[in-house]
Design a protein that fits this description.
lipopolysaccharide biosynthesis, globular, 8 helices, Glycosyltransferase_2, Spore Coat Polysaccharide Biosynthesis Protein SpsA, Chain A, Glyco_trans_2-like, single chain, glycosyltransferase
Length: 240
């Protein structure tokens, strides 16, 4: 049986220059805190991401690498990383370096002190370090989502999260589902806690999403998630 407790899943696409610094920060944040592994999922990058990850794998014993045969998007990358993970709990952060890995340890401590029914600890970027258009689009999206889904979560777009692996794999899977994890976890009958975390400017590479991408996809997804919540039924069950 694996002695891994926390699996850190990092989905990446064309992030060759952010890999080594972020891996170093993750290991520095978690070594001595919790038995962990790092699972990078390369979403069929076209730059040197795969080459750099192979070199890092030889250097960092905690690192594992999963590679997609074709580009499939962030939600699929996250799900495949979680499926490959050996820990009971998953830590998740974006591969662009804007999430501070030190906050993984912060979320983990929140988990250790929380009631057992809190299954998702979501990062809350109280101070955004993005361009103006991205901050505005995110603010509008969060307001609309919160009003429609009533998920009581101020920032679902933050990639930094800690959640139970089994709970995640029991959620309905669809493209872009990672943006609605709080609502989906609550739909499954569990509690969610938002935790203030740091946010940093991107120093290498480029963002993979634009404002219009988020807007049109988000409208369709919101309707779908609202339907799922409306149609859900929960009850306890026991074996006789």
């Amino acid at each position: 049986m694996s002695d891994i407790v926390l699996s850190v899943v990092v989905p990446v696409y064309n992030e060759q220059d952010n890999l080594t610094p972020l891996i170093n920060e993750i290991t520095a944040a978690l070594r001595g805190v919790v038995p962990f592994e790092i699972v990078y999922v390369d979403d069929a990058s076209k730059d040197r991401t795969a080459e750099v990850l192979r070199a890092e794998k030889a250097r960092v014993p905690e690192l594992r690498v999963v590679q997609h045969s074709r580009q499939s998007g962030q939600s699929t990358a996250i799900r495949n990383g979680v499926k490959a993970a050996r820990g009971q709990w998953i830590g998740m952060l974006d591969g662009d370096g804007q999430n501070d890995p030190a906050d993984l340890a912060k979320l983990w401590q929140e988990h250790l002190a929380a009631p057992a029914d809190v299954k998702l600890f979501a990062g809350w970027r109280t101070t955004r370090r993005d361009v103006f258009s991205k901050r505005i689009s995110s603010k509008v999206a969060n307001a609309v989502r919160s009003r429609l889904l009533r998920d009581a979560t101020p920032d679902t777009g933050c990639g930094l999260k800690v959640f139970e692996r089994e709970v995640f794999l029991d959620l309905p899977y669809f493209d872009h589902m990672h943006r609605y994890l709080p609502a989906l976890v609550q739909r499954a009958g569990w509690q969610v806690r938002s935790v203030p975390v740091a946010h940093r400017p991107r120093t290498a590479g480029v963002s993979k999403y634009g404002m219009l991408d988020r807007l049109w996809v988000g409208i369709s997804d919101l309707r779908g998630v609202a339907w799922l919540i409306k149609r859900s039924k929960r009850t306890t069950a026991k074996e006789l």
